[in-house]
Amino acid sequence: MRDIREDLVERMRAIKQEQTELTKRINALDEKLRVITTMIEDEDAKWGQDQPTLFDGPPKSKVKNLSEKKSKITPQRTGLSQFIFNCLSDMQSHSVSEIVEKAKDRGITFGEKSPGRVIHFALMGMLKGHKIKRQENGEWRILQN
Are the C-beta atoms of 96 and 140 separated by less than 8 Å? Predict the structure, then answer.
């Protein structure tokens, strides 16, 4: 039988070397996390300020920062989605262009934004919230309860 103590000592050195390298890697990852966390906090502070909006929405105090990991954001109906919901409340199907025309008739301005695009994205958000559905012909209607 041969003496394996030298082999064991060599293996122990290799493990200590690997442990040192992993400790350095963990420290580098901790630093990256710290930097990213700081960046998120900076962005939260930037976006937490009053941002100009196209339509009235929920008060800023109701909107949670992204860094609040465990917060549950409850959907709030914006002025635009409320307007769209009112347009669709006749339980008929309406196209995006019809909704845009109704918005313009009501005096809603879209600034530099494309009215059809704004309405479309609002409809997509409402679709995701299971409030409305898109018909096969591309028109939109409120979901029947």
Answer: yes
**How does pLDDT run across 43-65, given as a tens digit for each residue?**
877 776 655 555 554 444 444 44
pLDDT tens per residue across span 65-96 = 444 444 444 444 567 888 888 888 888 889 99
Q: DSSP readout, the chain? A: ----HHHHHHHHHHHHHHHHHHHHHHHHHHHHHHHHHHHHHHHHHHHHSPPP-SS--S-GGGSPPTT-TT--PPP---HHHHHHHHHHTTS--B-HHHHHHHHHHTT---TTS-HHHHHHHHHHHHHHTTSEEE-TTS-EEEPP-
The domain spans of the chain are 5-49
Q: What is the pTM of this model?
A: 0.47
Residue 119: closest CA among 66, 67, 69, 55 = 55
Structure tokens at 137: 């012909």
CA neighbor of 56 nearest in space, from 75, 76, 35, 42: 76
Q: What are phi and psi of 99, to 5 degrees?
A: -65, -40
